[in-house]
Design brief:
single chain; two-stranded antiparallel ribbon; 4 strands
């Protein structure tokens, strides 16, 4: 078993309450008492909307229970003033986040999950072969497109903070960045993953303390100033 998935299992075994305590009642709680109110017939298993112990999507996240298909639809961030470059497509940890958040806002936008079949939960015991799921209302209350409150990033990442970049490359060419205590893992709160900036570098999906699931407070730009000194 890969180390990342083994570590995730150990975390669940050692402190399942700590993870659940942050998720239950938060916007990542897609169970019966989720952010949008009661959902008749929905699962009350908080973890299952993202994770599964068996038959997981091994390409994206730890024991990931969601699918994502056409990564070529993503438009990555570019800038003539950036001292490094993004990967051609988001790396696996960011893709795990985008397996929910890539859906384009507004009518008809397909995002990167471009059919009903591709954005189902993989292991849904009530699913009828991938064509529908009784948990649709978790994301589509009342049917139709996502409500405006959702963080719908879409496949166009060209106007969002760059992800899947090597932090050391930027640090080497620009004195406006702070060196991390660990070049591979980053800081105690703000994380690097194999030296790269990814979505979970700044966001902790299990902790809603700092909205929206930020790893550090945004007041006074505290989160930003961990990496940036300008």
């Amino acid at each position: 078993m890969p180390k990342a998935r083994h570590f995730f299992l150990l975390c669940l075994i050692a402190s399942p309450g700590n993870l659940l305590a942050g998720i239950v009642g938060s916007k990542h709680d897609l169970g019966i008492t989720n952010y949008y109110g009661p959902m008749g017939g929905s699962s009350t298993e908080v973890c299952v909307f993202c994770h599964t112990p068996h038959g997981a999507n091994i390409e994206e996240g730890p024991l990931w229970n969601r699918k994502i298909t056409n990564t070529t639809l993503f438009q990555m961030y570019t800038s003539p003033t950036m001292d490094t470059t993004c990967a051609a497509t988001p790396n696996s940890l960011s893709l795990a986040c985008l397996s929910c958040h890539d859906t384009a806002f507004g009518g008809g936008g397909s995002g990167a999950v471009d059919s009903i079949d591709t954005h189902n939960i993989i292991n849904d015991s009530n699913s009828d072969g991938g064509e529908s799921t009784p948990n649709c209302n978790a994301c589509h209350p009342g049917g139709g497109v996502f409500p405006g409150e959702w963080w719908q990033i879409g496949p166009d990442l060209s106007n969002d903070h760059p992800i899947s970049i090597i932090y050391a490359d930027a640090l080497a060419d620009d004195p406006g960045f702070n060196p991390p205590p660990d070049p591979e893992k980053g800081w105690s709160d703000i994380k690097l993953f194999n030296g790269r900036v990814e979505c979970p570098s700044c966001h902790n999906p299990h902790d809603p303390t700092n909205v929206p699931f930020l790893r550090a407070p945004i007041a006074g730009s505290a989160l930003c100033l961990t990496c940036h000194n300008k």
